[in-house]
């Protein structure tokens, strides 16, 4: 920071991402409340603890290797030429790609006065990691062991979402170059991948006892505390604001970046360094939320659980292109995503006997998948990346956004990096006898022992005369 | 352990260095590799210990076989 304007821009950016991290923390608070509200009384405390312990597990592994993966694998490796060369001035560290930068032994991975951005950027990505793991957490409540969930949380939170972010979010990502992949607010890189991963796990884990009748008819196990579910979902909406902000670069001069001689053009950009405005995405966020709520209310005939969840699904479906959509387009896309998610949820439940306790696969997975496909049509022809122009252009090809590329991208997110790894890891854990809690414990309740001890404590206190 | 003993000396020297680099200021700068190894041990160790604790707990409860409504008698209301 050699000049006052450089210092101001750096410190503003540092503070901006710091605020997004605090806001995004509310997503996790919301997920905890939502899951506890959706679970039955005898499983409450275990449900809460499972979702809480993903915080340290994903954080530690994100520090050790998750962040490193994001910087190490954008080109596949080997699927597309890298623009991180001397000629573009984008070499960020030695060794393999830019992985030295995010190596946990690098001085930038600690307090150093040479850098003000790495830590907050690391944390912003980490909060996405928690979200990815937390999406899976809700689907598997009341029957998974904490050990198995911990392994699965690390897999989706610190490995597979990090790979997909490297491929589809990083400025050097091969999916941008070859497929024209565009996913501004993570319909795919967070939601479709986590929803797909959850579906893979559920296929192995099996339904909760009593979810299906002997003839295979699904029974409704509704939320036990609708108020907690409601407040939880409102907190997730709130945290989602931080999520949107964290996907942006708050201030950037695109003139010199794009090689436009003598032009100064300060703006916010999305993660691909193409221009957008915080003002515009604020409208789109609220309109897609509204579209989701409107569609959810009608299609579920006023069911509160689905209406609130549909607000979230609406945002998720529009997120891939919410940096460019018109607000009314956002609303309509949100509505379409909700209808697809709702219908698919019940079809999959009946057809494959999948017990998704909170509708996570539908709200995140199906709506995210649909959002990517729709984005390919609506934004067909837009540049997928700011690195396809000007000073950063080195001759490697960045495809424009297109329907086929986005559809393939959606398949990669949901199936290749989501469902298939989830299914394989769950199979291994199941083979070790570590995936599911014993039947007797599931019937008695995971909190049985804690509740029994609490009763004994209460008796002892009540019988005390002093 | 202290990487910095005097802020004025440290920042003055840093400002004269190439690029104005002030560098890491955490205690024991240069020991990052050892710290990472310690973190790996803590992570793996925690996983092993907590997994054993959970397995023991689940096995004990499964052997007792409480009925599916037994938890209701354990509700505390103050």
Task: Enter the CATH topology name of chain A.
Answer: Ammonium transporter fold
CATH superfamily of chain A: Ammonium transporter AmtB like domains
Proportion of beta-strand residues of chain A: under 5%
Quaternary organisation: heterodimer
Quote the average pLDDT of chain A: 92
Strand content of chain B is under 5%
Shape annotation of chain B: elongated
Strands of the biggest beta sheet of chain A: in what spatial order?
Answer: 1-2-3
Output the number of helix runs of chain A: 16
* Major sheet characteristics of chain B: none
Bin the helical content of chain A: 55-70%
Radius of gyration of chain B: 27 Å
The helix content of chain B is 55-70%
Structural class of chain A: mainly alpha
Number of extended strands of chain A? 3
Unreliable segments of chain B (pLDDT under 50, ≥5 consecutive)?
A: none
Highest-level CATH class of chain A: Mainly Alpha
Mean pLDDT of chain B: 88
Shape of chain A: globular
């Amino acid at each position: 920071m050699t000049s006052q304007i450089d210092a101001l821009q750096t410190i503003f950016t540092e503070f901006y991402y710091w605020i997004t991290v605090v806001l995004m923390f509310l997503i996790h608070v919301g997920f905890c409340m939502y899951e506890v509200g959706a679970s039955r009384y005898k499983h409450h405390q275990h449900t809460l603890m499972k979702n809480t312990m993903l915080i340290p597990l994903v954080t530690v592994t994100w520090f050790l290797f998750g962040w490193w993966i994001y910087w190490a694998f954008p080109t596949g490796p080997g699927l597309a030429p890298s623009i991180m060369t001397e000629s573009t001035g984008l070499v960020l560290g030695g060794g393999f790609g830019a992985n030295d930068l995010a190596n946990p032994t690098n001085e930038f991975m600690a307090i150093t006065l040479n850098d003000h951005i790495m830590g907050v950027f690391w944390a912003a990505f980490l909060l996405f990691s928690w979200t990815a793991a937390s999406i899976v957490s809700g689907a598997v409540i009341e029957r998974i062991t904490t050990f198995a969930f911990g392994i699965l949380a690390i897999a989706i939170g610190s490995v597979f979402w990090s790979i997909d972010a490297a491929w589809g979010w990083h400025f050097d990502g091969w999916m941008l170059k070859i497929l024209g992949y565009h996913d501004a607010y993570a319909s795919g890189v967070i939601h479709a991948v986590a929803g797909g991963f959850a579906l893979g796990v559920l296929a192995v884990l099996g339904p909760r006892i009593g979810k299906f009748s002997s003839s295979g008819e699904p029974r409704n196990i509704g939320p036990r505390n609708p108020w907690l579910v409601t407040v939880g979902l409102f907190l997730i909406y709130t945290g989602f604001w931080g999520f949107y902000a964290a996907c942006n670069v708050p201030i950037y001069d695109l003139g010199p970046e794009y090689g436009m001689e003598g032009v100064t053009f300060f703006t916010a950009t999305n993660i691909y360094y193409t221009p957008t405005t915080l003002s515009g995405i604020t409208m789109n966020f609220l309109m897609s939320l509204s579209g989701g709520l409107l569609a959810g209310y009608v299609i579920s005939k006023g069911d509160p659980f689905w209406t609130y969840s549909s607000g979230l699904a609406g945002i998720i479906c529009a997120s891939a292109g919410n940096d460019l959509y018109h607000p009314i387009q956002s609303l309509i896309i949100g509505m379409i995503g909700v209808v697809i998610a709702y219908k698919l949820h019940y079809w999959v439940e009946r057809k494959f006997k999948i017990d998704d306790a909170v509708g996570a696969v539908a709200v995140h997975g199906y709506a995210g998948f649909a959002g990517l496909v729709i984005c390919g049509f609506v934004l067909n022809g837009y540049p997928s990346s700011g690195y396809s122009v000007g000073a950063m252009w080195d001759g490697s090809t960045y495809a424009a956004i297109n329907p086929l590329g986005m559809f393939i991208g959606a398949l990669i997110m949901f199936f290749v990096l989501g469902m298939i790894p989830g299914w394989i890891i769950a199979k291994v854990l199941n083979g070790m006898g570590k995936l599911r809690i014993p039947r007797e414990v599931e019937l008695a309740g995971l909190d049985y022992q804690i509740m029994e001890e609490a009763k004994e404590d209460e008796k002892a206190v009540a019988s005390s005369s002093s | 352990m202290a990487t910095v003993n005097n802020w004025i000396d440290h920042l003055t020297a840093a400002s004269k260095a190439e690029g104005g680099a002030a560098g890491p200021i955490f205690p024991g700068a240069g020991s990052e590799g050892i710290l990472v190894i310690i973190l790996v041990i803590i992570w793996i160790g925690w996983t092993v210990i907590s997994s054993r604790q959970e397995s023991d707990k689940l096995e004990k409860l499964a052997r007792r076989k409480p009925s599916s409504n037994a938890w209701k008698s354990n509700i505390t209301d103050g």
